Amino acid sequence: MRPLDPRLLRYARATRAFLALTVGLGVAGAVLVVAQASLLATGIASVFLDGAVLSPALIAGLAGTVVARAAVVYAQERAAARAAAAAKSQLRSRLLPHLVALGPGGMPGRRTGELSTLTTRGLDALDAYFARYLPQLVLAAVIPVVMLARLFPADLIAAVTILVTLPLIPIFMALVGLHTQAANRRQFRLLTRLSHHFLDVVAGLTTLKVFGRAAAQAATIRRVSDDQRRVTMRTLRIAFLSTLVLELVATLSVALVAVGVGLRLLEGDLDLATALLVLILAPEAYLPLRQVGVHYHAAAEGLAAAEETFAVLDTPLPGYGGDAAPPPGPAGIELSGLVLRHPGRDRPAVEDLTARIRPGEIVALTGPSGCGKSTVLAALLGFHAPAAGRIAVGGADLAGLDLAAWRERLAWVPQRPHLLAASVADNIRLGRPGATEAEVRAAAEAAGADRFITALPGGYDSVLGDDGAGVSAGQRQRIALARAFLRDAPVVLLDEPTANLDDATAAEVQASIRRLARGRTVVLAAHRPELIALADREIRLGASGKTATTTAVPA
Amino acid sequence: MTVTRAGAAPRTSWLRLVLVTARPALPRLLVSAVLGAGAGAAGVGLMACAAWLISRAALHPPVLQLMVAIVAVRAFGIGRGVLRYLERLTGHDAAFRALVALRVRAYRGLAEVAPGGLAGFRRGDLAERLTADVDAVLDVLVRVVLPYAAALLVGVGSVALAGTLLPAAGLALAVALIVLAIGVPAVQAGAARRSDGRLAPLRGELATHTVDLLHGLPDLTAFGATGTHLAAAADADRRLRAAGERSAATAGLGSAAAVLVTGACVLAGLIAGAAAVRAGTISGELLAVVTLTPLAVAEAVSGLPAAAQRLAGARAALRRVAEVVDAAPPAPDPADPVPLPAGPYTLRLHDVTAGWADPAVRGLDLTLAPGRRVALAGPSGAGKSTVAALLVRFLDPQAGRVTLNGTDLRDMRGADVRRVVGLLDDRAYLFDTGIAANLRVGRPGATEAELWQALAAARLEDWVRSLPAGLDTEVGEHGMAVSGGERRRLALARLLLADPPVLVLDEPAEHLDEPTAAALTADLLDATHGRTVLLITHREADLSGVDEVIRLPGR
Fold it and tell me: B256–A71: do the CB atoms touch at under 8 Å?
C-alpha cells in the first residue's frame, strides 16, 4: 500500500490544503512540545539545584503551551474531519457521473451492489485515513526533525544516537513486513478455505437440517475454527515481530540516551536542565513513528476504497455512438453479421446474427436461457458496442448515431425493471417526464396497473421503498409497461416481460402487451409459447448464439 | 418475519455472551492483561528511573550509586518490547479461543431456528453477516477488554507510586487518569453520536439516490433520465458534505481535553513538588520523578479512547449474535418426545392456521395417505411454503394440528419427523465440495453404487459420467459451477438417497426456464413413483401427473 496515492491529491483537491495545514500544525505542535520540555527542564533544575521558587512567568508559560497544544490538536482533528467530508464528496461527485457515463455493464466484473456500496459506505472508510493515518504520517516526518533541531545544539551525542536509531524503525518494519507478507501469502489460501468452509456450512444450514445433519456439524465448526486459530497464530507470531522490533528500538534507544546523558552529567559535561530536556524530548521523537502502525488497518480500508474509486475513474469511457440524428419516420432495424461479446468472456454471447426487423412488425427473439436474447436488446439500446458486424436503424449505422436521441424513440421493458424510490406516478413518468396526471393514469390503465395502484393507501402518490420494496413481480412489470405506454415510442423492446409471473398474472400482462404493440415496431425476447404467439415472426437464437433461424409464427 | 418474542429483551446480554464464551480462555486473558500491564509499567518505570538517575547524577555521586538505576533503565528499555510482544500473542490466542466457542454457540442457536430465522436475518447474506458479527468478540477482547485491564493495573500502580512520593501528585494523577480513561472516551462518543444523528438521514438519502442511479442505470439510460437523477444525487451529496463539515467542530474536543488534562497533571506535579522540595518534605531528586512520570502514564493509557470507540461497534454486532443465540425456536422439541410411530405413514393437517408471523394459511385440512401423490396449487403468497415448513416441522401451527399416524408432530422431535418427511425446495443448497460429498449429506455411509443409482433416478447419470472428474467434480460456491437444472437434480438425487417415506417438493422448478422446468417436474414425478408425495406448485402444467389437486385461495 502506498501511504499517499498521488491520485488522491489529483481527484480530491481538498487533500492538498489539508496536507499543507497538517504540516503547519505538525510543526507548531512540535515547537510547542519543545517549549514545554524546555520550561519543565528549567523549572525542575532551578528548584532542585538552586532552591529557587517557581517563577509565575514559568508557570504561566507552561500553562500557555499546554493550552496552545490542545488548540493545535483540536484544529488538526477539525481540519481532518472537514477534509474527509470534502474529499469524500469530491470523489463521489466524480465517481457517480463517470459510472453513469460508462453506462450499464460499463464496469465488467464488478457487481452493481459493490459499486453502490463503494460510493456510499466504502468512501466513508476514508474518514479514518484522514483523521488518523495521514496526519500521523506527516507527524512522523515533521516531529523528529524539530526534536533533532533542538537536541543537536543541546547534546550532540544524544542527538546522533537518535538520528542513527530512528531510521532503524522503518527499515526493520519494512523487513518484517516483507517477511510477514510472504508468510501471509502462504497462509492466506488456507485461511480463506477455512473461513469459506464455515460460511458454506451456515449457508446450507436448512439443507443440513432437512437431512438431520445440522447438530453433527457443530463439531466440524469447532474443528475448522480451531484450525483457523492455529494458522492465524502462526502468522501473527511473525507479524507481531514488527511490534517487538518497533518497541525495542524506540524504548531501548530512549534508555540508552537517558543512561548516556546521566553519565555525562556525572562527569560534568552537561548541565541538569539540558539532561532533563533530552530525557523529555527523546521519547517524543520516537512516538509518532511508533503510532503510524497503529492506524494502518483503518487507513488501509480507506485507501482500498480510494483505489477502487481511481480504478473506476481511470476506466476509459466507451465512446460508442456519434452525433448524427437518427433518420426520421418509422425505422426498420437491420442486424448484419452481429457479434456481441461480454467483456472478459471468451465465448461471444451472440455470434454472427443477421436479421431484419421491418417497421411495424412484432418479432420474437427466442432460444434457450443464455443464448443472448437480452444481450441483443441491450445492443439495440446502444448499451454495448458490437464486437463485429453492425446494427442499422433506418439504414443508418447505430455506431454513428446520437444514442440519446435514438433512445428517445425507444421504449424498453426489461426483465426486472428497476423501480425508483419515488412515488408510483413519478416512476411511470420516467417514460415521459412532463406527463400530466391524466396521462399517467391513462398509461397505467392501458398497462392494467390502475386497479392495484388506486388500491394502494396513497394511490398514485404512494412512495415506493428502495427498488420498489413491497411491490410484487407482476405489479413491477405493469408499472414498467405503463412507462412504455406513456413513452409512446415507435420502437418497443420487451425482455421476457412475463418471466417469474404466475399464469394468471402473465395472461393479464400479455393482454397489455398486445395493446402496446399496436402500430409499433416490437422486439420481444420470449420463452413462453403464449407470448411468442403474439409475434408476427420469430428469430431463434441457437444455444451458443451461433445459429439464428427466422420463422414465421403460425397465426 | 420475526420469531423472537416481540418487545422482550434478549435473555443473554452481549456482555454475558462474551463472558460465557471467554471463560475457557480466562487464564490466558489474565496472563495477557498482566503482560500488557508489565509493558505499560516498563514505560512508566523507564521514565521514573531515568528522571531519578539524571537528577541524582547532577549531584555528582560516585558512579556505583547509580548502577542499580542504570541497569533498571536498560532492563525497562528491553522489557517493554518483549512484554508487548508476548501480550499481543497471548491476547490474540485467548481471543481466538473465545471466537471458536462463540461460533459454535451461534451456530447451535442458528441451527435451532433455521430456516425460520429472525427479523433481519432472513436474507442470503445471513451467513456472512453472522460470521462478521461473531468476529466482533475478537475486537472486544483484544482491543477493548485487554487494553482497559492493562491500563487499570498501570494506572493504579502509577498512582500508588506517585502518591507514596507525594500525595498531591498522586491525587492529580488519579484525577487525570479518570478523565483520560472515562471522560475523554465519553466526550468522543457523544460527539460521534450527535454527528451520526445529523449525518445518518443524509447518508440514507444519498444511498437511495445512488441505488436508484446504479441499480436503475439501464432503465434511466434507456429513458434518458440519468441527468436529473445525477443532479439529485449531487444535491444530496452537497448537503451531506455541508453537514459533515459542520460536525467537524466537535471532532477534536476529546483529544484536546486529553492534552489539557495531561498538561494540567504535569503542571500540578511540578508546583506541588517544588513546594514540597522547598518545605523539605521530599528530596530534590524526586521532583523530576513526580513531574515527568505522568507523561509516561498518559502515553500508556493513550489508546483508551480508541478502545472505547471500538466497543460501540462491537457491542451492536454482539447484540445481534445474542439475538440469534436467544431466539425461541419456531418448533421447539418437547421435553419428553414420543418415539417415531411405525410406517406406513399418513400425514394430516387438521384445520391448521399457521405462518411465520401473520397467518399465511387458515383452516387448512389436508391428508397425505401412503403412496398418494397430491399437488398443492395456488398463486404466490397463498401460503404454500408454510405448509411445507409445517410438514417437516420447521414450524408449528398457530391453531389446529399436524399429525403423523395420529400423533401430533409437536410431541415428536423435529429431527425424527424429518427422518420420515423429506423436503426439496428451490433453496436446496449444494455445498462447495464434490458431487459425491454433496450426495452423502443425504446418507453419510452411501456406497458408490448407491450414489450412481440415485443419480440415475434423478436423470443425472450420463451427465456425471461425462464429466472428467466424475463423482469428484466440484460444484462450486453455492453450486454455481453447475447449471440451475443440474443443481436441482443433484438435490433430488440427494433426497432420493436419504430415502424418506414421504416427500415434500416445494416449487422444485422455481426460477428455471420453461423447458428445463417442465422436464424437471416430469422427471421428479417419475423418479418418486410409488412414494407419498406432496407437490407444491404454481404451475398449472404440473398438475396432470398427480392423484389429487388441492387449491389454496390467494390472499
Answer: yes
Taking an 8 Å cut-off on Cβ atoms, the answer to whether A272 and B58 are in contact is: yes
- Decide if A440 contacts A428 (C-beta within 8 A): yes
Residue A391's Cβ-count burial label (10 Å; 0-12, 13-18, 19+) is buried
Cβ–Cβ < 8 Å for A55, A82: no
The β-bridge partners of B425 are: B506
Across the interface, whether the CB atoms of A74 and B253 are under 8 A apart is answered yes
Residue A543 has φ and ψ, to the nearest 5°, of -55, -40
Answer yes or no: do B84 and A466 touch at CB < 8 A: no
Contact map slice: A 15-74 vs B, CB within 8 A:
36, 40, 43-45, 47-49, 51, 53-54, 59, 62-63, 65-67, 69-71, 73-74
ipTM topping 0.85: no
Q: Which residues of B touch A51 (CB under 8 A)?
A: 278
User: pLDDT, tens digit, for every residue of A251-273?
Assistant: 999 999 999 999 999 998 899 99
The pLDDT, as a whole number, for residue A1 is 55
Start-end of H helices in A51-130: 56-102, 112-117, 123-124, 126-128
Give the pLDDT score at B3: 38
Alpha-carbon distances of A535 from A362, B340, B474, rounded to whole Å: 5, 57, 42
The pTM of the full predicted model, rounded to 2 decimals, is 0.79
Whether A448 has a pLDDT exceeding 50, the answer reads: yes
For position A555, what pLDDT does the model report? Answer: 45
Cα separation, B120 vs B133, in Å, equals 13
Contact A116 B211 (CB under 8 A): yes
- Nearest partner of B226 among A420, A483, A302, judged by Cα: A420
Quickly state the pLDDT bin for A298 (edges 50, 70, 90): low
Q: What is the pLDDT of residue A236?
A: 85
Residue ranges of A 377-416 with Cβ closer than 8 A to chain B? 378, 381, 383, 404, 407-408, 410, 412, 414
Nearest Cβ partner for B104 among A221, A229, A414:
A221
Select from A48, A428, A432 the residue whose CB has the most chain B CBs within 10 Å, as the one to mutate to test that interface: A48
* CB < 8 Å to B260, chain A: 66-67, 70
Mutation test of the interface with chain B: which of A165, A207, A481, choosing the one with the most B Cβ atoms within 10 A? Answer: A207
Nearest CA-CA distance, residue A151 and chain B, Å: 17
Q: In which band, very low, low, confident or very high, does the pLDDT at A239 lie, cut at 50, 70 and 90? A: confident
Q: Which residues contact B86 (CB under 8 A, 6 or more apart)?
A: B35
3-state secondary structure of B503: strand
Least confident segment among A77-91, A312-326, B264-278: A312-326
Q: How many CB pairs under 8 A join A and B?
A: 417
Q: What pLDDT is stored for residue B120 in this prediction?
A: 44
What separation in angstroms does the CA of A255 have from each of A259, B73, B533?
Answer: 6, 6, 81
Parts of chain B with a pLDDT under 70? 1-11, 116-130, 380-381, 477-481, 511, 554-555
What share of chain A has pLDDT > 90, as a percent?
35
pLDDT exceeds cutoff 90 at A220: no
- Contact call for A48 and B277, based on CB within 8 A: yes
Please tell me the predicted confidence (pLDDT) of residue A500.
67
Tell me which H or E stretch contains A49: helix A14-50
- Is-contact B536 B384, C-beta < 8 A? yes
Q: How far is CA B450 from the centre of its chain?
A: 39
Across the interface, whether the CB atoms of B431 and A200 are under 8 A apart is answered: yes
* B288 close to B53: Cβ distance less than 8 angstroms: no
Cell of B382: 397463498
Residue B366, SS3 per DSSP: strand
From the list A246, A251, A500, the residue facing B77 with the nearest CB is A251
